[in-house]
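Extended Data, panel c. Modelled sequence:
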Amino acid sequence: MALVSDPITIRGNKIKNRIVMVPMVTFSFHGDDGAYYGMQHVEHYAQHAQGGAGMIIVQATNVSGAATSTNQWSADNRRFLTQIAKSCHRQGVTAMIQLACGNLDINILSISEIQLIQKDMKQACICAGEMGFDGAEFHFAHGFTLCKMLDAAENRRTDQFGGKIENRTRILTEILPEIRAQVPPNFLVGVRMGEYQPNCSDGTAAALAFEQAGIDLLHISFGMHEPGQAAPEDFICSRMAYSGHRIRRSVHIPVIAVGELRTEEQVRYLVEKDYADFAGIGRGMLADPQFANHVMNSKPINACHGCRRCLWFTDHFKCPARRASSAAANLTR
């Protein structure tokens, strides 16, 4: 069993500890020079890189336009993303970027349209490597395009992208060898997915298919819906985090577990009781950029308030936890 502070090496990347800042879109941020990304994003990730996490997975970036250097893959956007990767590396943090494919109806896509998506998926990985990222995570979760492709109930296709699990994972597994041939040898390729696709047996089958194809890392969140099965009564983390544990029992690649992890006790419990290889922190890090340092040094965490509708979706300046943190910092000056 590992300690939270223990490093782990995956495909030659030494990740300095077991705490991951998971991808969270900063909806109220603004880009610069007409780009989607800007200095606000650079400063946000630089601040969190200083917060002690072993890995940061940058928010979901749509692969559309990667093959043509347009949309979120324009030169201006790539300039800011490159700065984000560099700011992570300056703090010894492993930097990945999450790659998303929008929210399409996968059952009406033609084969040629899927192949165009695959072309962008592949090029997005190549661009990520060129920008200095240590890896990319494909977003097969939360009901979006890739999640629909993976889900046995949602995917009603009758061609090579529907039916058995080998087909439902094909949109990535088919191009993975091509990705490997064009990115650095230590470039990580991960998948964020749910356990229930729609049943736990489907999720386990998908996880095994991704592992067999050569995926390096699994990040277990939820699929079309949040998990319905309760965690054991003595499990002090969320049922979503327990989904991560169940998938981990079936695979031999590292697993990030996530879901309402807001305390040092939960993070240590998850990793040091061997439920998962990594603890993934979302809103906890938005509330307290020093979350990881505070966990490892057993210092008080400025805890997320668990607002019913997270204010980071509308105006991050109104986040009560961040406001309390800023007020406390001003008092100590």
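The longest helix spans residues 111-130. This feature is highlighted in the accompanying rendering.
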